[in-house]
Amino acid sequence: MSASDDDTAHADAHAHTLDASPTLWELISRRAALTPDRAALIQAEADPADDRALTFGELRTRAERVAAGLYDMGVRPGTVVAWQLPTRIETVLLSAALTRIGAVQTPLIPFYRDREVGFALRESGADFFGSPGMWRGFDHTAMARRLGARGIFAAYDTLPDGDPSVLPRTPTPTPTPTSGTEVRWIYWTSGTTSDPKGVLHTDRSLIAGGSCLAHALRLSGDDIGSIAFPFAHIGGPDYLVMLLLYGFPAVLFEKFVLPDALDGYRRHGVTTAGGSTAFYSMFLAEQRKQPTGQPLIPTLRLLAGGGAPKPPELYDAVRAELGCQLTHGYGMTEVPMITMGSPDDTRVNLATTEGRPPPGMEIRITDPEGKPLATGTEGEVRLRGEAVCRGYLDPAQTAAAFDADGFLITGDLGRLTASGHLVLTGRLKDVIIRKGENISATEIENLLHQHPAVGDAAVIGLPDAERGERVCAVVEQPPHAPELTLPEITAYLREAGLSVHKLPEQLELVAALPRNETLRKVLKYKLRERFGAPPGGPSAER
Q: Alpha-carbon torsion 229, 232, 235, 236, what sign?
């Protein structure tokens, strides 16, 4: 065994020991004891001279001092602290400090505005609100005051020079939390529906989710990761747990815009990147602008993510053009990581499935009544395991979300293969019922993605007096592509073998599909609102 192989084996052994940590704070402490001088977080700034880094030892020490400052402000175990901060080292420190105290934290995506933030503050009853102040031209502190938030503190202005290490007193005058099964996190299911829910998580549910991601990706201490999405997303602790388990750093991007961010990836030698399907597509688009044979990010060996469906042909495009592996997974706010592809999976499994679940995650495929179905049969996906949330802030929503056996009812449709890989085939809400026949929106979308004049596509069902629902394809075309027509699209789909009753009856061409600001999921409810008029009007095919 080579020295590098030996290091990797030791890192893997440590990781499988660390993932049993009862709390996130203990995980932080144990990693700091193992590799105190290794880089943990690297802030990539527009000017390379402004880049900053934090070691695992510094992460623990400085988070302890931030916790002392928060304690002085009145934060105690069980205190609810909402924070709405961008992806910065200081944000991770604040979150880690709150875990040290044992507070309940409710992270809010920094792009949220009055409606979403006001709803979260009211529902959570937050005692404190951490604000970035003026950020990207918007005054978050003024919004918080407008909403009547309590305990507002400007997280970066209050900490002198943005440096939390100068906060007073250490250690925090409260015992280190020992239980990882108490609810200490409230995340919000905003993005693809118009009504958010407060999702309740524990330290252990987040550690279990992050462990699934970490172990599946076959990473080592030699890797350099990246976080280009809001740390306030449920993916934030996923990635933090991964870094803590394997002891390698991540490059943080407060503002992810291509091609501007590419210099940060290159100068820090990032080996693994991603976030969601939209991120893969953005990297591909930039690769296609490069001179032939010039890799976009020379050190990149792995793209990984989840949060949105991945068309199978995207896998082959990434392998052929970016020259790296692509592994995709399945997660949601309620269950941060359910399945994940591994680099050593087969091409078929990586291209067409969402990977396999880790030990301890039970996936049950059921009929509408909850009866388990045989392997290979499509049905509703239900989940049970340590990574599953404890429910919602609203007890009625919790009661409706779990079946009698304690499985979370996801609303997703899929099937399990003989090898245990999960294939997602759509959502119950994405099943279009036309003249009594069920039509999968995902099936049509996957075919549309293969058309050269289609950049992205979303298929929705719209109310129709005669058919019940009609099939509408909403298409975003790449630059300079010839404008598509409905007859061209239906002819293409028929040639691809799609049944006649599934063919779209309406085509909409849009400059850009509406997406959320986190993992860039398409907001289908907005498309239904926009194009729900009867066919033949101004929203019909043009």
A: positive
- What residue ranges define each of the domains in the chain, with the CATH number in brackets? 23-212 (3.40.50.980), 312-427 (2.30.38.10), 435-531 (3.30.300.30)
Residue 39's SS3 state is strand
Q: Residue 150 forms beta bridges with which residues?
A: none
| Residues 481, 438: Cα–Cα separation, whole Å | 32
Cα 131 to the chain's mean position, in Å? 22
Q: At what angle do helices 235-246 and 203-216 cross, to 10 degrees?
A: 60
Q: What is the pTM for the complete model shown?
A: 0.83
Question: What residues contact 310, with CB distance under 8 A and at least 6 apart?
Answer: 277, 280, 328
User: Tens digit of pLDDT for each residue in 157-208?
Assistant: 644 334 544 455 567 778 999 999 999 999 998 544 456 899 999 999 999 9
- For the chain, the first-to-last Cα distance in angstroms comes to 64
Give dist(CA 375, CA 414) in Å, integer: 11
7: Cβ–Cβ under 8 A, 6 or more apart, which residues?
220, 221, 222
Beta-sheet strand order (sheet of 272-275): 272-275, 302-305, 325-332, 335-340
> How many beta carbons lie within 10 A of that of residue 341, not counting itself?
26
Assess contact for 518 and 191: CB atoms under 8 A. Answer: yes
CA distance linking residue 222 with residue 206, whole number of Å: 24
Beta-sheet strands, E only, within 149-229: 152-154, 183-188, 198-202, 225-227
Cα–Cα distance measured from residue 475 to residue 460, given in angstroms and rounded to the nearest whole number: 11
Distance between CA atoms of 445 and 489, rounded to whole angstroms?
Answer: 12
Q: What is the total residue count of the chain?
A: 542
Answer for the pair 253, 273: CB distance below 8 angstroms, yes or no: no
SS3 384: strand
Whether the CB-CB separation of 258 and 282 falls below 8 Å is answered with yes
pLDDT tens profile 292-342: 889 999 999 999 998 777 888 889 999 999 999 999 999 999 999 999 999
Judging by beta carbons within 10 Å of its beta carbon (0-12, 13-18, 19+), is residue 113 exposed, middle or buried?
exposed
Tokens 């977080």, residue located: 41
For 396, phi then psi, to 5°, come to -65, -40
